[in-house]
């Protein structure tokens, strides 16, 4: 009963979003070109994905003859589109970017190809070089690998060193959230049009939900207790959410309720925000002098805490192969290449070493070129990934794994609906208390399913 309900929930949730993006999808997986193979790849619109879309034809396609047709979507739309395609067995895509949340759930449903065997056969891929926390997060209940990491990340604080120096502020390496709030107030308006901090406010379990849940964890809250008691309206959850909403409303970016990862990246890189708490993977873009006005002037600190020793999330955007593909060989060749040491070297030499999709391989951090380019953020990124504990991210036991999410199918819908209300609170259209009271009812429905 639970499996059927979860499947129906995934399909219903995805179908609603797919109407917005149906026209942007690639063609069916049976497409060919001149007798050669063409694979269809659906991926999230982050800078690292945009890089691979630019590099593929002149390298991978040239070497293998396999053409790659990319569909690139914003994060929320990507999640809807890929869920609909995989859950309904539509078979439109041969490869898709998914993450640690989807892998164990979809593996149990039998929707994904096992990929560890492909990696084992390719000695140049060096599967043993992949970071253990990332491998664990992308493995199924059978211990096998079901997605190949493109890059791995935790979360940390990024700040404009010039602004802090001008204000005489030293940002602690391990700050508390109160310290960050105090600094945000002090640097707000330090330069024309600059706000004290940028935080995600865009609704979505993987947008606002990701950053907010790490704050909830370290404030002592949780979505559910170990015995599946819903805690969305608990004192700790309310305290964390009020803190977050107040901080972004008082010292955050304009239009915060519509700001996700991409908008905050733009704000930080264009000197519209003095600080930003988000994914460690953003550092490469901030250090790219071709697009960032603060390249070489960014400082980094560990994710702010309150009651926990660490609070950074753990995530990997990874390549997965739906069981419906009819081009497993070609798709696996692309995925192995896209997650390889060879590809990292290509990015470093062609685009710059700070733009390497890191956070997945130990060897990356031993490369002299990367170590030099990532000198300000490489070590803290690696240590943040290693410190993340999906099994125990807060102050109390949890019913499932996950730092910034709850690893059950229902969370995709629950997290999105609750963050829609919290985003509305950021926009001043409702209150945090009402948002969490409504969210508690939704969470209780989910909890009831798992208590039976």
UniProtKB/TrEMBL annotation:
Domain of life per record: Bacteria
Keyword flag Magnesium: no
Cross-referenced SUPFAM superfamilies: Periplasmic binding protein-like II
CDD domains tied to this protein: PBP2_TMBP_like (cd13585)
The entry's keywords: Signal
One Pfam entry name: SBP_bac_1
Signal sequence, renumbered to the chain: 1-26
Protein name as catalogued: Sugar ABC transporter substrate-binding protein
Biological classification of the source: Bacteria, Bacillati, Actinomycetota, Actinomycetes, Kitasatosporales
């Amino acid at each position: 009963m639970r499996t059927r309900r979860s499947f129906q929930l995934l399909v219903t949730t995805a179908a609603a979003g797919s109407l917005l993006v149906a026209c942007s999808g690639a063609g069916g997986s049976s497409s060919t070109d001149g007798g050669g193979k063409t694979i269809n790849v659906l991926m999230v619109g982050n800078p690292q994905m945009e890089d691979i879309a630019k590099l593929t034809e002149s390298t991978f396609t040239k070497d293998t003859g396999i053409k790659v047709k990319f569909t690139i979507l914003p994060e929320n739309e990507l999640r809807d589109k890929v869920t609909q395609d995989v859950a309904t067995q539509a078979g439109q895509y041969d490869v898709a970017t998914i993450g640690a949340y989807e892998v164990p759930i979809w593996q149990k449903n039998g929707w994904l190809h096992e990929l560890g065997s492909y990696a084992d056969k390719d000695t140049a891929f060096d599967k043993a070089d992949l970071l253990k926390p990332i491998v664990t997060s992308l493995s199924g209940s059978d211990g096998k690998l079901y997605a190949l990491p493109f890059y791995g990340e935790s979360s940390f604080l990024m700040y404009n060193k010039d602004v802090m120096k001008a204000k005489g502020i030293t940002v602690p390496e391990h700050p508390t959230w109160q310290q960050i709030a105090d600094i945000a107030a002090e640097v707000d308006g330090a330069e024309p049009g600059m706000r004290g901090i940028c935080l995600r406010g865009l609704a979505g379990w993987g947008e606002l939900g990701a950053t907010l849940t790490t704050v909830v964890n370290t404030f002592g809250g949780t979505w559910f207790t170990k015995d599946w008691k819903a805690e969305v309206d608990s004192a700790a959850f309310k305290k964390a959410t009020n803190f977050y909403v107040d901080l972004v409303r008082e010292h955050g970016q304009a239009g915060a309720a519509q700001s996700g990862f991409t908008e905050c990246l733009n704000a930080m890189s264009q000197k519209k925000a003095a600080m930003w708490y988000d994914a460690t993977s953003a550092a490469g873009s901030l250090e790219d002098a071709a697009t960032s006005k603060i390249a070489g002037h960014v400082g980094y600190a560990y994710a702010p805490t309150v009651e926990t020793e660490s609070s950074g999330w753990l995530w990997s955007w990874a390549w997965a192969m739906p069981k419906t593909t009819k081009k497993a060989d070609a798709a696996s060749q692309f995925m192995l290449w896209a997650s390889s040491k060879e590809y990292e070297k290509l990015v470093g030499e062609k685009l710059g070493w700070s733009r390497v999709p890191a956070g997945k391989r130990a060897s990356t951090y031993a490369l002299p070129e990367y170590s030099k380019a990532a000198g300000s953020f490489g070590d803290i990124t690696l240590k943040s990934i290693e410190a993340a504990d999906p099994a125990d991210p807060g102050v109390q036991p949890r019913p499932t794994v996950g730092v910034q999410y709850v690893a059950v199918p229902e969370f995709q819908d629950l997290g999105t609906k609750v963050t829609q209300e919290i985003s509305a609170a950021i926009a001043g259209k409702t209150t945090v208390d009402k948002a969490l009271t409504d969210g508690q009812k939704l969470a209780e429905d989910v909890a009831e399913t798992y208590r039976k």
